[in-house]
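Example record

One chain of 343 residues, shown exactly as stored in the release files.
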Amino acid sequence: MFSLSFITTIRSFAQHKLHFSLSVMGLSLGMAIVILMGLFIRNELSFERNQPNVNNHYRLVMHAQENNNEYILTTPRAYQQLANIAGVDDVFYVFKTQMASDDKVLVGQNAFQLLANVAVTPNITQLVNINVLAGNLQDALNAPEKIALSRSEVLRLFGSDIDSKKRVNTTDFKNIIGKTIRLQHNNRLITVAAVFEDLPINSHFYFESLMSFAPYQHIGGNVAHTYVALSAGADKGKIAAQVTEVFNQIWQWKNIYYRLQAIEDIHLGPNFAQDMKVGGAMSSVMICALMSGLLLLISCVNYVNFTVAQAANRAKEVGVKKALGASKRQLITQFMGESVLLA
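Predicted structure tokens for this chain:
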């Protein structure tokens, strides 16, 4: 019975080629768009989900009440006061070194510009998941004369030292450890202490090389991205008020307050000029979700319309089958089978 229904369905498709083609194209286009939009939405919602202790990490954001503007850079001078706030387990700083120097380096006789060099506190691995391929990352973060490079940055700076004809492996990166680069602005030699895997796309963090934060910890001005780790059950509102008080004491500011922004909300939150990467928007995610649902609904409606229009042309076929003894259940099974097979 099943094989007979299957053969009948294939014959029906062959006899009604135009209806079959239009139905397949309409449903295929609708489903393809829904799948693509679903993948986009899934990617947008996946940002920072793989970071360590993501639920307890927050970024400090300053809000100016006079003009309603917000800023995400703060001064490193507040480190000790922030660390002393009850409920704050740790404080992390990320500083773009290009704000203090031009980041131009010499590798042998070749000149390069470090793409995204940042100075970070040694506890950065508790904030960002960094996969070390070779060397010791903590050596690079604790010594001002050392640096950690990403896979891409190593290939860009030392590509001539790696055989491009074979697949790059861990041994090649181990050979890079101990090599030096020279800062052009002061001729200071920096030693490569570690190589790490490129950061994933679904993260607002972006850096190609890491250095110690120690030389910049007393730098003036609001120049560093500041993150805090809170204790489980800590009162975020109370901590935000204490953070505001700390910076008010440092700068003698008025009409400003600080808020804590969960790092998993950063990508789809407000975009700032100082962000490490351009973020997304929750409105785009919602629009894509609505559009994908609408397109799928339109595809289904079009298919139903085609099928209803085709039903009139198949009235003779249905009459003949009923005359030959086909039951209502058998007819329903055949037409439902055609729809399922076509979908």
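Notes: The chain is about 40% helix and 20% strand.
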